[in-house]
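Posting for a labmate who doesn't have an account.
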Amino acid sequence: MRTHPSRVLTSRVLIALFAATAWATAPAGAQTYDLLLRGGSVLDGTGNPAVVADVAVADGRIVAVGDLTGATASREVDATGLHVVPGFIDMHSHADRSLYSGDQTTRRAANLVAQGITTVVFGPDGRNPTWPIADEVAGYRNGGTALNIVPMVGHGTVRRLVMGEDYARHATDAEVTEMQALVRLGMEQGAWGLGAGPEYRPGRFSTTEEIIALAQVVAEYDGFYYSHQRSQSPLPLWLTPSIVEDYTPPPTWPRGWRLTATDGMNETIRIGRETGIRVVGSHIKAKGPTTWGQSAVDVMAIDEARRDGVQVYLDQYPYETFGGGSVEVIPRWYYAPVGTDRSGGLDDPAWGRQGLMADRATNLRAHMSDPALFAEMVTDIEYILDLQGGADRHVIVLSPRQPELVGRTLAEVAEGNGLTPVQQVLRFAEELGSDDVRSGVRFRGIAGSAADVERYMRQEYTATSTDGGIVSDPGPGRHPRYYGTYPHKIATYVRDKGVISLPFFVRSSTGLPAQITGLTDRGFVRVGQAADLVLFDFDRVQDHATITNPGGHNEGIEYVFVNGRAVVQGGLLTGALPGEVLLRHELRGR
């Protein structure tokens, strides 16, 4: 049996280290386990520094951590030179619909487990793939999954169940009571809390009081609330300057009030303050140059609330570019006939109806030929360009008719043609527009600043998330977070830039999200925990997913175990489906 470098430590020092991290050494005498990871640098998920140790697994659980010299196992892995950490818990995942109804290949969640993700939190943006929760759980269990699943009640789901398509208004007291009953049903069936998306339909028509009423039900079960907040930019995503005056705010807000990122954060804090539950501002960001610096305002507000005892948290994906796919710049109503009602905003389902934008080129020219409408169009385009980072940060990712433009910025192309960015956007739409890409080209905007991304990241209450899902073909414009979130955070923000330490990263991706969600058997390397484990080579970890190559592979993630079974070994996928649906009442009953 080989000797680990750590054996040079005195017994007294070794015992002190293990006691400080709540680990247990193996009982005296030889032991036999299912899996034995030997000699890795263990980061336990608490934020403690690494300690070289062995980790033993039996029946899907960690049963010993420490000096296990003399022990044997059905399978042993030499972890020398690797870090052994808890499996990553993705605090905001859109893998729910894929895992609910996907085939065996989809359920392997290749792009997620390859990052080291072992558990995903669902109900993102207030949506469930089906209802009730019991049916959702059955869908995950039928056929199995590679990942563990944390189900949530979606605010938008229960709102639409109660209000139907008549949701574009405030709910009555009776309707809120019905929603509360559905939330209670979901919690009784094992959900962990309430997910919301009040920047989206149908949640954006709710009042804060409605959400508080539902969160009070969640409080009865020690659940938590997480939200795509009402705004993380100068205006909510569905608004532009040309229609802002048509927006009618809830009666509890002043007339003419413009919702901003500050208000979105304050709403989340208020929900936590009035219900006492854990609340999370999800995939936090400061979007667009006019909001750069917003992180300082958010951090100040959260720190103050936490001093008052409010349990406020954040989650974040570590990139300066936002949004799941590629974007356009011209609002859709400029492709519709002049005079079409646009007060419903950019997210109005009417824009998807066949025929409304059938003669888009003619309709666009009609708006351009009217001086007043053209002035509005320019204002909207300039606003969206700024919101998405500016012309020099709009990278072309799709251009079917001129593929040579891919990878260039809007500013570069416009300057080369002697045009302003707005003029170039309109030329793209006029000359290159097609049925597939009405704007001619599509962009990925780099709307964030490094200072904001790093300030959010450094907070001890900020967890890691992907805001991604399962994809096999990333396609042009897909966000690189779908493939590279966790390796990217290690390589860029820990190793290369030193924004956070490696123990800090591990806690933000494991122990902290376990604490937020209420999971008591995951998130740490300690005896009794589920054997969700990741082994990686810190020096070699590297993501290769980029704006122009969003499906780039990762290096350095050598092993990923879910409930003690390998889903990645030697850097390759195994295809195993060992994931479990984690139900609140079942876990609490263990």
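Reply:
Got it, the structure tokens are right above this. The first strand starts at residue 32 and ends at 42.
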